[in-house]
Amino acid sequence: MSMDRIRELIDRMTLREKLGQLQIVFRPKLEDAAELVRAGLGSVFWPPSAAATNSLQRVAVEESRLGIPVLVGLDVIHGQRTIAPVPLAQAAGFDPALVTELAALAAAEARSGGVTWTFSPMADISRDPRWGRVVEGFGEDVHLTSTMVRAMVRGYQGGDLTSRTSLAATAKHFVAYGAPEGGRDYNGVDASDHQLRNVHLEPFRAAVEEGAAGVMAAFNTVAGVPMHANRRLLTGVLKDEWGFDGVVVGDAEGVRNLVAHRVAGDEAAAVVLAFEAGLDVEMGGAPADLTDEALTRIDGRRLDDAVARVLALKERLGLFDDPYVDEDAEITEPSARSRRLVRRAAARACVLLRNDGTLPLGSPRRVVVTGPYADSTDHLGAWTQYFGARAGTIADRLRDRLPDAVLEILPGVGFLDEDGSGIPAVVAAAHSADVVVICAGEPSALSGEAASRSDLRLPGRQEDLIRAVAGTGTPFVVVLESGRPLVVADWIEHAPTVVAAWHGGTEAPAAIVDVLLGDEDPAGRLPMSWPRSVGQIPIHYAHENTGRPATTGGTLSADETDVGLHGPDNLQDKFTSKYLDLELGPQFSFGHGSSYATFACGSPTVSREHVECSALDAGAAVTVSLDVTNTSARSGDDVVQVYVEDVVASVAPPVRRLVAFERRTLTPGETASFTFEIGRDQLGFWMTDAAQPRFVVEPGVFRLHVGSTLASMQSVELLVS
Ligand code: GLC
């Protein structure tokens, strides 16, 4: 349908019919949905099948006055029928191509059931693991998040939204939802323009550049202005500055929440405020009931612009030409191929936090499998309440893979309860075992929306179980499943081999066993820092250096009576940015991880050591290269990362920033050359000192840090003049 035809259609619409196109009703009963669609509702959230979608479309097309087909929206976050690892785990895989494949799988499954619009990817950056929704994003880093957001948008949308395997993607939650005060979901955010431009807005700019069809407004305020009423950002930045021509959809009840935010006196005022600010579609449990008077308070051109955006999206999806789905082609179960794909993804998401050589397991004869995840099927993670295919158990998969071993399955403790009475039996069994596999973690229910936690340690008596097993002297492995970084300080020194497996989805148990037995290499890298203590939060690697960077932390000791420490020899340590009672830095940093293989790196080289700003502005780039050799007898993955350190800038720069990465498998003895382009986008930053922010590359010295682990990073200098 051309824009002319869309305009003609809008001209024929009544005010009520226009409002109908600007609302999506959240999880209506099917019979109610038919009634609403007959009356002109333009979008619904979630019909549960292809048949249900077709029945709704028939009502829309044949029984409503204008016959406009409906959009069917749903949270397809990390899979529809076949559940992939949670997005945070996908980020840990450092494999954008795989993220695209997983999104494409999800899109094909969901579209076959009539869904046309997903509220994903989540582009929120977070440095606060207390926030339950870190599970749904890609972590703390701008480049990693932006890269994965682009990859997911490509996977969902493909090259053609009319395709029966594509979904309209929605980048959410615009903006800065991942930085709530106190890590409490929905809480206020007081981000500076410097933070907004250089951190929180960047992944959304990437999503818009990638052609995302939608953007969802966030629940939070930014500097006191609720995002659902934030004209400066929704219209000024997103639509006017970036030229976003898609649909801005509210979050569930986000418009009505403006009354609770105390910026609107009633629902009608909230709706008017939101549409005037730049929202195009209101999402709620029931259509907003506006009087004609309230409707006329919304500028007519704004209303028509919003309706045009919605109709254009329906046109991009091909709904005017054919709104129906082939019910015989509906995918309702995982396939062998989809299971293989998510199993591989779950294994590649695993991060080897520590390994004393216990992994990979050889062929143990006697194995104790313990911990609440030993026989749990709760591996899907958040946002799988709709259709996700259940997972099996780690115990069952180990039985399948080690048929000749004697397996004792003794969970020992629950996820949350304080009952430790099962621990002695585990200890007794461990004494006669070759190895103990402790399957611990955070159940899915403690992760996701409205699931912030103030204590990030393993819940219940899991830590006691780990310490008790450590006390037996039998070799053991800890497998951690979670939707966030955990605080492991109270036991990690007793556990020489620990794998972070996240919530890995439908095939998580098989993937974990693949990793335990060495069939897959757990070469993922942490997408978020793991704090030593909740007291460190927010914590991330791209922090400012401060005017007094610390070199030591945790200087308080029992015998220190005078912590004044006025002597000059203490000055350089005392008055620096640290905690008196905690070591410096996180337990495990962003980018931490390794592999079952071992690698040796050459020295990084650059194509040129000097480049002009003008050349960079004209598109020139420097390449930085690193040769890596697999020095082990097994294939393995290396993840080479490149960080930029701006030595002196007009505003305090982060101590370093990830600007490029590549994960690659190397066979035994193989040497591979990793090469990355470093140009304006990698060296510049947003200056927000003027009314109109501008992206600048400043002259000066830059250090490029290149390597695959923090310990092996090497740097090379680049002069920009
Ligand atoms: C929820 C979430 C949002 C989701 C929407 C619809 O409250 O904040 O991410 O897409 O409602 O379920």
Structure description:
Helix 3 runs parallel beside helix 4 and helix 17 (about 425-430) runs parallel beside helix 18 (about 460-470). The strands form 7 sheets. This protein has a 6-stranded mixed beta sheet, with helices on both faces. Strands 4-3-2-1-10 form a 5-stranded parallel beta sheet. A 5-stranded mixed beta sheet has the order 19-27-26-21-22. It is about 30% helix and about 20% strand. With about 725 residues, the protein is of the alpha/beta class. It is built from 22 helices and 27 strands. It has 3 domains: about 5-25 and about 75-325, Glycoside hydrolase, family 3, N-terminal domain (TIM Barrel, Alpha-Beta Barrel), CATH 3.20.20; about 355-515, Rossmann fold; about 600-720, Immunoglobulin-like, CATH 2.60.40.10. Alpha-D-glucopyranose binds next to loops.
Side by side, the strands of the main sheet go 11-16-15-14-12-13
- Summed over residues and divided by their number, the pLDDT gives a mean of 95
Biggest β-sheet strands, sense, barrel? 6 strands, mixed
Unreliable spans: 563-568
Strand content: 15-25%
CATH superfamily of the largest domain: Glycoside hydrolase, family 3, N-terminal domain
- The CATH architecture designation of the largest domain is Alpha-Beta Barrel
